[in-house]
Request: fold
Amino acid sequence: MPHLSPMNWILAITMFWVTLSILASTLWWTKHHSFSSSSNYHSPSMQNLWKWF
Reply:
């Protein structure tokens, strides 16, 4: 295991959980909102934003 200071361990673990929770919430939101009744629900600006990812 890499030898990091306690502060670096706290930061690394925090960043890991933040990234994991953002990914999980994004997947959850996509799964529950991708089947909307209106096809024009998503704005073009949001589609352009997703292209950057």
DSSP finds two helices and no strands in the chain. The mean pLDDT is 73. Helices lie at 6-33, 44-52. The CA atoms of residues 4 and 10 lie 10 Å apart.
